[in-house]
C-alpha cells in the first residue's frame, strides 16, 4: 500500500528528458534536444542524481534550449514557497517535508485523493503565479502572444512511491540533506504537516483529514 510520495520537481533546463542518468520522460518533444539522444525514462526507487554522465553532452544540450536554464535565487525560492502555501491554504494537502533549491525541489507527501502529479501541477502553477505577482518570474520579460510567460519548470516531476514509514523517513532525511548540501539556510515552512501528526493519523486511519 502506498502511504506517501517523494516528489522531485525541476526548473526549466535542469534535468532534460534524455539525461543520461535517467528521467521521468518517455519522449523528447523538443527537436533541438533530439541530437543528444532518446528519452531515458526510468523507474528508479532512489536518487540517480550522482549517477555517471557526460558533462560536455549535458552542457551542449542545455545550450540548445530555447531559453536559458532556470536557477532560482533566494528571493525566488521564497516566492515559490509562498505559492505552495497559497495552494495548500486554499485547497489542502499533506506535505511532510519540503526542500526548495535553485534548480529543483523535493516534497515528501502523504496520500492524496487524486493523482499526485496533478497535485504537483497545482503547486507549480501556484508558484508560477506568485513569481509573476512578485515580479520575480525568471522569464518576466518574455511575454508570449497570449500574455503568458514561458514556464520556469521542467515538464514532468519525478515521483518515488513510499510504502512504509521507513520510506517516508528516508525521503524526509534526503530532502533535508539536500538543503545542507546546497549550503542554504534551513527551511522550516509553515505549510508543512508535522510528521508526528501525520503518523498518528496514518496509524489511526484518519489520514484523509487533510484532504479537502
Provide an overview of this structure.
This protein is an alpha+beta fold. It is 34% helix and 12% strand. It is built from five helices and four strands. The chain has helices at 55-63, 74-91, 116-133, 165-181, 195-204, and strands at residues 4-10, 95-100, 104-110, 158-162. Strand 2 (95-100) and strand 3 form a beta hairpin. Helix 2 (74-91) crosses helix 3 (116-133). The longest helix is centred in the middle third of the chain and has 18 residues, at 74-91. The radius of gyration is 17 Å and the shape is globular. The two termini are 22 Å apart.
List its traits.
4 strands, 12% strand, 212 residues, 34% helix, Alpha-Beta Plaits, 5 helices, alpha+beta
List the helices and strands and how they pair.
Layout: E1 4-10, H1 55-63, H2 74-91, E2 95-100, E3 104-110, H3 116-133, E4 158-162, H4 165-181, H5 195-204
Antiparallel strand pairs: 1-3, 1-4, 2-3
Helix pairs in contact: 2-3
Amino acid at each position: 500500500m502506498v502511504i506517501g510520495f517523494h516528489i522531485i520537481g525541476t526548473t526549466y533546463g535542469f534535468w532534460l528528458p534524455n539525461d543520461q542518468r535517467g528521467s521521468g520522460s518517455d519522449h523528447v518533444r523538443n527537436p533541438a534536444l533530439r541530437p543528444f539522444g532518446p528519452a531515458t525514462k526510468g523507474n528508479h526507487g532512489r536518487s540517480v542524481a550522482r549517477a555517471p554522465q557526460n558533462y560536455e553532452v549535458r552542457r551542449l544540450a542545455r545550450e540548445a534550449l530555447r531559453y536559458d536554464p532556470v536557477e532560482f535565487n533566494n528571493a525566488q525560492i521564497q516566492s515559490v514557497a509562498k505559492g505552495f502555501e497559497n495552494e495548500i491554504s486554499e485547497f489542502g494537502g499533506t506535505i511532510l517535508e519540503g526542500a526548495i533549491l535553485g534548480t529543483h525541489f523535493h516534497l515528501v507527501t502523504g496520500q492524496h485523493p487524486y493523482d499526485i502529479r496533478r497535485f504537483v501541477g497545482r503547486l507549480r502553477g501556484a508558484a508560477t503565479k506568485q513569481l509573476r505577482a512578485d515580479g520575480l518570474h525568471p522569464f518576466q520579460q518574455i511575454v508570449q502572444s497570449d500574455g503568458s510567460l514561458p514556464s520556469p519548470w521542467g515538464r514532468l516531476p519525478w515521483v518515488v512511491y513510499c510504502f512504509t514509514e521507513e520510506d517516508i523517513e528516508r525521503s524526509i532525511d534526503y530532502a533535508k540533506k539536500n538543503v545542507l548540501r546546497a549550503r542554504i539556510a534551513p527551511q522550516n515552512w509553515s505549510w508543512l504537516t508535522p510528521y508526528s501528526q501525520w503518523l498518528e493519523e496514518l496509524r489511526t486511519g484518519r489520514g484523509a483529514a487533510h484532504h479537502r
